[in-house]
Design brief:
Blueprint (H helix, E strand, L loop, with lengths): L14 H14 L20 H19 L3 H8 L4 H10 L2 H12 L7 H12 L3 H11 L1 H8 L3 H17 L2 H5 L8 H10 L4 H26 L1 H12 L1 H26 L2
Helix pairs in contact: 2-7, 3-4, 3-14, 4-5, 4-6, 5-12, 5-13, 6-12, 7-11, 8-9, 8-11, 9-11
């Protein structure tokens, strides 16, 4: 039954009329958005091949971080010191490895390749940072808005990081290593947008990583035996840490899927 003022639609009697009305209804529907037409994405308009590669690699690094969480404690318990420390330094630039190496040197153990561990840890720590520099080159402030849209906490820390980047410029790439909970990705994107060269960015980033890992090694050197014993205890319970890491991965994936489903309802 039609209400007052509502146009009366004709009742189709033939197959041709059915097809005609179906075509009119289809034309009246608003066009479906393309998959890339999402305000949460950093780009504006159809993304280029470079933009797709950049966002794809950033997503892949996030997945890599989750999947490798259980591997770190497994390495810690699989090999004895100092072999495990060198492996961890090359795998993820582990602070625990730096502390253990420093502590063993502090108690008189001869580790002639300690300097190689710091260099390896520093290089490993910055292996994905260039992606955010590249994102800043491609999208500028769109990167900041993308990160800030994740949550209120993300928004606060993102804009705080942006303020630091605006105030200090290039040195902010160094400083961000020593400011807890500050999203370094914002700093890297900002200097990329500011057209800092990749060579200069990587040099400052590596120098910061070298200093940061060196401080952890020095802390272990100063603590000596207590630090060495603590790492040994962590290695002893590495199986439980591995299980905890697997649980964290599953929780992280589950939360991401729930958040994605809620955004697309």
């Amino acid at each position: 039954m039609s209400t007052a003022g509502e146009p009366v639609r004709p009742v189709p009697e033939t197959e041709a009329e059915v097809e005609e009305l179906a075509g009119e209804a289809q034309e009246a529907q608003p066009p479906t958005k393309e998959w890339w037409d999402d305000p949460r994405m950093p780009w504006r308009g159809r993304p280029s091949r470079a933009e797709l590669w950049c966002i794809g690699l950033i997503i892949a690094t996030g997945a890599y971080g989750l999947l490798t969480l259980p591997v770190r404690p497994w390495i810690l318990g699989q090999w004895g010191a100092p072999t495990r420390d060198y492996i961890l330094a090359c795998f993820n630039g582990s602070n625990i490895a730096m502390v253990d190496i420093g502590a063993r040197i502090g108690v008189g153990q001869h580790l002639p390749m300690w300097w190689a561990a710091i260099i390896a840890a520093s290089l490993t720590s910055i292996k994905f940072d260039w992606l955010w520099w590249w994102a800043g080159r491609l999208w500028g402030r769109g990167v900041i808005d993308m990160i800030a849209s994740r949550s209120k906490w993300a928004a606060r820390t993102a804009y705080y990081a942006e303020a630091i980047a605006r105030r200090f410029g290039g040195p902010a790439v160094f400083l961000v290593w020593f400011i807890p909970l500050l999203p370094s990705s914002i700093i890297y994107a900002f200097v990329g947008d500011a057209r800092m060269s990749l060579r200069r960015f990587l040099f400052i980033d590596f120098l910061a990583g070298l200093t940061y890992r060196g401080l952890w090694m020095y802390a272990g050197y100063e603590m000596g035996t207590p630090a060495k014993d603590l790492v040994s205890q962590l290695a002893k319970y590495s199986m439980y840490l591995t299980i905890a890491g697997v649980i964290v991965v599953f929780i992280g994936v589950f939360r991401q899927q729930r958040r994605f489903a809620a955004q697309h309802r």
